[in-house]
Amino acid sequence: MIQIDVTIMGQPYKLACKEGEEAALREAVAYLDGKMCAIRDAGKIKGNDRIAVMAALGIAAEFLSSKLPDGPLADMSLSEVRQKISSMHAVLDAALAPQENLF
Questions:
Q1: 47-76 burial string, b = 16+ CB within 10 Å, else e?
Q2: In the chain, where does DSSP find H-type helix?
Q3: Mind listing the pLDDT tens digit for each residue in 15-61?
């Protein structure tokens, strides 16, 4: 295992990965950083935890939409998957709203 230093939304992280997987991890970090920065810069969502959750949901939606024909959601249309994700956003917003006062 090797350790690499990366930055996500301006925060430094030290991550471990197997030798030969460094480039893939750096690519994943760059992709996540781009998604999180775009959400932050849109200004609608505050708090790094909320931004991370929204980015994760967006990435999951991208992944699932590319896997629909073979995946567990094969019987659902893309619009149904998007509706489910929108519902998850609403649930997360409601669950995380009380925590906004803590920051």
A1: eeebbbbbbeebeebeebeeebeeeebeee
A2: 22-42, 48-67, 78-96
A3: 998 899 999 999 999 999 999 999 999 988 889 999 999 999 988 88
| Structural domains of the chain sorted by starting position, each given as residue range(s) with its CATH number in brackets | 1-44 (3.30.160.880), 45-103 (no CATH)
**Nearest CA among 55, 6, 54 for reference residue 29:** 6
φ/ψ of 46, rounded to 5, equals: -120, 150
Alpha-carbon distance of 29 to 93, in angstroms, equals: 25
Residue 16 host element (H or E): strand 11-17
Contact 22, 3 (CB under 8 A): no
Residue with token string 């090797």 = 2
